[in-house]
Write a structure and sequence with these properties.
The protein is α/β, with parallel strands linked by helices. Helices cover 44% and strands 22% of the residues. A hairpin with a 4-residue loop joins strand 7 and strand 8. It binds calcium ion.
């Protein structure tokens, strides 16, 4: 799971964000000064930084400036009490990926964190290649033996999951949870149906049925 660094000197806010993120399954670290935020952010110990602008010591703008000057592309979401357009612009120009004006609702912050993390994953890893299969995660296109094949969004996600674990067996439950977001088996054969669609498009022999266990991409 992703590691979130929270830099906020108001303990009421940092503990509220911290609890929420831990409940959502993230690993968190809370710091209350700009110096600590910068040091940890540069150490590579976080996947995303939630950064308050008004911090003691060096402020959020300065943390961001030094972070970017050091070549870090760590996603940063700025928390600001100031809602003026100028401050927003300054944050974004200073290298923030997003901003949240205070007061904010936790679910809005969570949505932005998830979005920025998925952007970061995608740009770090723009394509997946397994044998003659190639998935471009930016363009959402698929090449099979060099020819482009049309996949629906769900087929694309299923292909991505199988390719990320090529050579390993994925159970129906794992695929249901990761591709469909179900933490239960709805009692349908939706996984088998979609594996059938993918076989028709990618080549039947590429996806093996492992009896009693699940599916495996060769
Ligand atoms: Ca503050």
């Amino acid at each position: 799971m992703s590691r979130i660094l929270i830099a906020e000197d108001e303990s009421r806010i940092s503990s509220f964000v911290d609890k929420g993120l831990r409940a959502a399954g993230f690993t968190t670290t809370v710091v209350a000064t700009g110096t600590d935020a910068l040091e940890l952010a540069l150490s590579g110990a976080a996947d995303l930084l939630v950064l308050d602008i008004g911090l003691p010591g060096i402020d959020g703008y300065e943390v961001m400036r030094r972070l970017r000057a050091a070549g870090s592309s760590l996603p940063v979401i700025v928390l600001t009490a100031r809602t003026s357009a100028e401050d927003t612009l300054a944050s974004l120009e200073g290298g923030a990926n997003d901003y949240m004006p205070k007061p904010f609702r936790f679910d809005e912050l969570l949505a932005r964190i998830r979005l920025r993390l998925s952007d970061a994953t995608r740009s770090a890893e723009p394509r997946l290649v397994v044998g003659e299969l190639e998935l471009d995660l930016h363009a959402r296109t698929v090449l099979v033996d060099g020819a482009e094949v049309e996949l629906s969004a769900r087929e694309f996600s299923l292909a991505e999951e199988l390719m990320r674990h090529a050579g390993k067996v994925l159970s129906r439950e794992q695929l249901l949870s990761r591709v469909w977001g179900y933490d239960f088996d709805p009692g349908s054969n939706v996984v088998d149906v979609y594996v059938g669609y993918l076989r028709a498009k990618l080549g039947a022999a590429r996806i093996e049925t492992v009896r009693g266990m699940g599916y495996r991409l060769r």
